[in-house]
Every structure is written in structure tokens, then in C-alpha cells.
Amino acid sequence: MKNLFAALIALLLPVLASAQFSISGKITNQAGEALPGATVTITSPATNTQADANGKYQLAGMPAGTYTLKATYIGYQVTTQTVTLTGNKVLNFALTNATFSAEEVTVTATRAGKKSPTAFTNLSKKDLEKNNFGQDLPYLLNQTPSVIINSDAGTGIGYTGIRIRGSDGTRVNVTINGIPLNDAESQGSYFVNLPDLASSVNNIQIQRGVGTSTNGAGAFGGSINIQTATRRDTGYADLNNTIGSYGTVKNTVSLGTGLMCGHFSVDGRLSRIKSDGYIDRASSSLRSFFLSGAYYDKNSTLRLNVFSGIERTYQAWNGVPDYVIGDDTRKDNRTYNELGLMPDGSFYKDQVDNYQQNHYQLLYDRKLSDKLSFSGALHYTKGYGYYEEFKNNAKVTDYGLTPVIVGDSTIVRTDLARRLWLNNDFYGITYALKYQAQSNLNFTLGGAYNRYTGAHYGNIIYTKQDAGIPPNYEYYRDNATKSDFNIFGRAEYKTGNATLFADMQYRRINYSFLGFDRNLKNVQQDAKLNFFNPKAGITYEFDEQNNIYASFAVGNHEPNRNDYTNSTPASRPKPENMKDFEAGYRTSGDVFKGGINLFYMLYKNQLILTGALNDVGAATRINVDDSYRAGIEVDGLVKITKQLNWAANATISTNKIKNLSRTLASYDDNYNPLTPVTQFFKNTDIGYSPSLIVGSEIAWAPVKNGSIAFLSKYVSRQFLDNTGNVNPTGITTSPDVANNPYAVNRLLKAYFVNDVRLKYDIHTKSIKTIGLGLLVNNVFSKKYEANGATYPEVDSGVLLNYNYYFPQATRNFLASVNLSF
Predict the structure, then answer these.
(1) Pairing of strands 320-321, 718-719
(2) In b/e form, how buried is each residue of 241-269, taking b as 16+ CB within 10 angstroms?
(3) How far apart are CA 340 and CA 354, in angstroms?
(4) In the chain, is it the N or the C terminus that has fewer CB atoms within a 10 Å radius of its CB?
């Protein structure tokens, strides 16, 4: 029997030697809380993996043998374990807090924590990677609560927009490593200027409502707090490629040294994205890079980030006229872009937007004592570029010129091409001091001083006729400056199961701009604003997994550039004020985690759209005394089985203006101005504010290393203005509406869109991971518009609504092949 047994063992040894096993487990802190994104490394053979959102990791395809595993996570001590592998093994890690939480200090100063009485969502690097096929950053946030997105080109590449709780991008505060991204004047965040930023992002927190004190523009609908690449202890090389519908191509190369000599690391990325767009002449050509170098020691981290983006997009920001979408006789009534149309019927080939933005960030974190830590940053952003456009039969007097007599003719109009330039500089300092006075009491003192200078000017580069215009003639210039100072203090005190929260911010703004004055015409003007933004709240913990919270916050928000320059000192709009009431419940378990949040946002002097647009699509706004948003947000994730998860969220809200007075321009048959027409509305809906938003993601992993997800988004109807689509009495509606419902229905119809995402990873000896991905957007080919605008006027007693829409792409795909070394 012994000889038989020995023979069997000898026969099985080759099989055992070639068997492939796995090591899996969970990484937590000493309190048992999951540490998503923690790294598990094996030095021989060299391989590593990161924990998922639940702290779980897996190393697969490993032969039998003895291995030493190292678990690391920022802010925790390195933990090492040795295991002999003869079969599948479960190995858990419980990490101990390090003496200093380097790098995290930079972002925690402006972030909400687990016990904060604030509605927020965290997205890890893995959450972002699974949806990153090259679309703009807002598309990667689409499945978070209360978010709706749109794309000018219809594909998610090029100019995109995001709204949180119905508030547009000018009211959504965006920071990168605590440094403001919002444009200081327009206050929007143009992610097109930083293409493929998501490939260099480590994590994102989205806060809804006023949230915690932050740097930059006031948060009136929400905040997006981005942290870029952080320390990775092992070297890596990634090559990511995507191809897709409408000529879409994305190429990304990422490299990193890992930790060198125990102190240094360098990470870099180079990207390019090209797409023709769904709407014709809505192409994009985008390039970017990201470079980061860091030095670490026991008590400090010093990191330098340099990143840049260059975009060239064909202008599609005016959308598609309603009569085009409403005309079913057209071969393709969704692909239309009339910008740059010349008299001969051809299109001006350079009707494009060109812009480059360079960012420099120097981030420093240091532990000053066992109780005190500091983070600070110096930053500088340089932006410059122009958009070029063709103007048909333009008046020469509009460009500051006197009509020229040539022979027997007087040149009063001519076709021309012009470039409108923006050359700006944004620089400043941010800081935060965190003091852990006691285990149950901590303070944070933070703030920033930022300064912006922007030169706006225009050149005429071509005229059809000799109108006396010298080469590259500059016909206007507007130099603006803005300084923004803020300081905030925050404290958290835990007593029993309750945690008390207080946050106070003072913000001062000085803005100088070229504005219109009825007496002096265009003169340099100044606006000085002082804001005090207090916040307070309480969180009560039933246990480690369940808590309830309530908070009250005040937010103030300054008008943007167009609000100032399109008004006189007498008619200048006032700053907005909001009182934000929030209350909710959160739970986190192994099978289900989620929460419910109630909000009531009460506005004073909210700036709302009147329907008027200027020549580049910017909206004119007025103050309304009283308006509000009230609603309920629900989100959750349930593990139906080990392989099947369902994540869903829903927002139900009512968004009202109590009293609205709107004045419309009126003209006669010869387009001579008549007495303006004033309209009055009561309890009308705020524009672009759907009453129902629902998101869903069903994810199934039927095979090892493979997954399929079905993503859904429902958005109820939205109005393009603030009238609730009510046609006023006493004014006749255009007779054309009988054949064109878009002309009277000033709304975006409800839409329900579904996507399918497939992922499969292959592990080999030479290539750590070969990742295959397929994203089919709008799989049921729904025709819908996600954004639009309306411009009303009264013509000879008849109400005319000039409506424009942004159609989104029907069924389209993006396929990716990602190689990790």
C-alpha cells in the first residue's frame, strides 16, 4: 500500500505543480472598516492588485508555492503575511493606522467623512475605470444620485454638461486636489479642456447641496472633489485603446515607477481622443498629458503635478433648431449644425474652438506633531485660445469701423471671419491645518487666496470686401481681474453616539471688468462682495453600520461674467443666497448598503434664465425673490447573489418659483421695437429641473474575470424656460405650431436610455492583464434631446419661440483593449 501511495503521489506531482490557485480576502482597518483601493503586492513573481469598493481583493492564476504578501494603504502601516499555497486560500489583512496620513490631508479638508451630516457619493479608481471608454468626465458620474448629463456633439466627447439637483455647472463647485477648476468669470467647469482626466484620477467625491466648505465658486447644487493619482508602491505600464462609432478613437499610455529608494515616485500619462460627433460638424480633436513626481519621508509628502489639455472642436454649441427636428421629411433630422454656413451653401472649414489649458500644482503635506498636520498647495493655471467663426453680411459699424466708399459703392456690410480670444492666468495658494485635540474632538482651519487675470479680445482675420480693415484688426478688448479670498473653520465633536458638526466660512471677492454704463458707455467697473457661509449638523450612530443625520447650511454665490457685462450698474443682478436643509439615514452591510436623504433648498435672489441668448449661446438671467427645491433622494446597492449586484438611485423633487415676472422684447413688421410685453406667473417650475431622475445598474459576473452590466437612466420632462410651458393670455401664438409642436412645447421630453457594458480580463505571464471592454450606448436607439434653449419674442402681437435642442446619439458603441504590465 505504501508503494502504491508513493506511486500515486509521483504521478500527481506534475499535476499539482501545474495547478493554478488563487489568494483572496478582505482588507480592513482595526475597526473592521473596508479599505477600498488598498494594494496587495507579491514581489516574486512581481504582481499586485487593488481592493474593490468593499475592501475585497483576489490574486488568481497562481501556481502552488510559498508567497509573501504585502498590503499597503495610504495612512496605514504596511502589513506583511507569508502563505504556502496548495489550494485556494483566504487571507485577510487588518491594517493599523500610521502615524501620519500623508496626501489624504490635501483633500480631506474639503471633503465629507463617514459621519458628516452631508449627502455625498464616493467613487474609487475602479469605479471610474469600468466606465472609462474615453467619454468626458460627467459621463462617468451619470449613475450617481440627482445627476443628469448632456453632450453638445451627442456622443459624450467634446463639450459636455452636468447638472446636480437641476443646478447647472456654474453652480457646481469642482476642485482638483482642493484647487478650484471652475472658471473664475463664467464659473463653469470645462472638462473638454482636460480630456481623459479620468485616467489620472484616484477617486472622486460628489457632494449634493451646499456641502462642506471648499475653495472656489460657491456650491449651489453640489460639489465634485477630484483627487488625482496618489502613491503606488510598484511600477506599472498601461496601454489603453478605444475605437467606436462616429470615428471615435482613444489612445492612452500610462507609466509609473512605483516607490524608488523608499522615497520617490514618478507617474505619467499621454492621451489623445478623436471623434466626428453624432451631430454633423461637431468633431473633436483632443490631446492631454499628466505628469506627477513625489517625494515621501516619514512625516511629509511633496508632490508636483503638471498636466495639460488641448482641444479643437467644431462649434456645436447653438444646437439644432426645432423646425429641423420637427421636420420628418428630412433624411436624418438629428444630424444638423448650421454654424458657419456661407452664402454659397458651403460651410466655413474653420468654424472651430481652439483652447489649451496648462496646470501646475505643488502639494505639500506634513505632520507637525502627533495632533497637528498641515497641507498646502501653490498652483498656477494658464489658459489661452480662441474660437473662430464666419459672419455673413456683417455690419462694419458693429466692429467699430466707418463705412468705406469704394468707387460708387459704400461698404456698410461684408462677409468676414473673426477670432474671439481668451488669454487668462489663474494662480494662488490653498492651505489646511488639522488639529486632533482629543480622540473625540478635531478642528480644521483652511482657506485660499486666488487671483485671476483674463484678457478678452477679438480679431478680424478675413473680409470678403475691402472694408478698410487692416490685417488681424482688433475690434474689442476687455481685461478683467478677480481676486477670491476665503477662510473656513470646521469642528467635529463626538459625545456618546452623536457627532456634532460646525463649519463657518468667510469669502471676499473683488471683480474688475469692462462693463456698460449709460453715461460713460464702456468703462472699467468693480464689484466687491462679502459672504458668510455657516453650516451646522448632527449625526447619530446606532452602530457601526447605521446612522441618521441632519444639517443646515447657508450658501452664497456671485453672478457670473455675463450677468455683469450684460447689465448696467442700475440693473446689475444681486448675488444668490440659499438656505439648505438636509436630513437622512445611511446603512452599510454585507448584503445591502444605501441611504435616503431629504432636502429643502430655499433660494433668495436666485438667478434664472429669461430665455434670451447672446450671439455665442450665453443666457441672460434675472433675480427672482423666492424659489425653492425640495425632494427626496434614495440610493442603494444589494448583493442578490455572489455574482449578481443591483445598484439603483432615484430623486423625486419639486422645483418652484413662487412669483415670476418676465419681460419680452416686442417688434412690428419692420422689426422696429415696440413696448415690451410683460408676463406674470405663479408657482411655476424652474427650468431644466426634472421632477424625477432614476438610475440603475445591474451587474452580473457569470464567469471568472468577466462581467456584464445593464445601465439605465430615466429623466422626466424638463422645461427650457421658467414659465412651466404656459402660453400667456393676450398674446397670439405663432400659427406654425400646428405643424411644429417644438415651437410651442418649450420643453425637453422625458427620456429613458439604456446602455450595456461588457468586461473580460485575461491574465498571462508576459502581460499582467489584458482587459477587453465593450460599451453599447443607448442600446434601444432612443431618439431624445438632453439639453436645449429657447429665445422668445413678440412679433406684431404674435409670440414666437425660437427653440434649439441638442440631440443625443442613437445606438452607438465603444470597444476597448487595455494592456497592463
Answers:
(1) unpaired
(2) ebbbbbebebbbbbbbebbeeeeebebbb
(3) 15
(4) N
**Distance of alpha carbon 48 from the chain centroid:** 30
Cell numbers 489620472 label which residue? 200
Tell me the pLDDT tens digit for each residue of 346-369: 889 999 999 999 999 999 999 999
Q: Are residue 588 and residue 470 in the same domain, yes or no?
A: yes
Q: State whether 185 and 277 are in the same domain.
A: no
The three three-digit cell numbers of residue 738, written as one number: 400646428
Mark residue 252 as left, alpha or beta (left: phi above 0; alpha: psi -120 to 50; beta: remaining).
Answer: beta
Query: Are β-strands 692-700 and 798-808 bridged in parallel, bridged antiparallel, or unpaired?
Result: unpaired
The CATH code of the domain that includes 143 is 2.170.130.10
Q: Which domain holds residue 601?
A: 236-820
Whole-number percent of the chain with pLDDT over 70 = 90
Residue 523 backbone zone (phi > 0: left; psi -120 to 50: alpha; other: beta): beta
Instruction: Give dist(CA 362, CA 377) in Å, integer.
Output: 5
Most confident of 147-156, 519-528, 715-724: 147-156
Phi, psi (5° rounding) for residue 766? -85, -35
- Is residue 38 within 8 Å of 55, Cβ to Cβ? yes
How many whole angstroms separate alpha carbon 629 and alpha carbon 601? 5
Report residue 38's pLDDT band, with 50, 70 and 90 as the boundaries.
confident
Please enumerate in sequence order all residues whose Cβ is within 8 A of that of 248, keeping only pairs 6 or more positions apart, or say none. 134, 155, 157, 242, 273, 274, 275, 276, 814
Domain end call among 95, 118, 150: 95
8 A C-beta contact, residue 520 and residue 504: no
**What's the domain count of the chain?**
3
Q: What is the CATH number of the domain that holds 68?
A: 2.60.40.10
Q: Are 259 and 790 in contact (CB under 8 A)?
A: no
Taking only the tens place, the pLDDT of each residue in 208-221 is 999 998 888 888 88
Q: CATH no. for residue 514?
A: 2.40.170.20
- Residue 482 is placed in which grid cell? 478677480
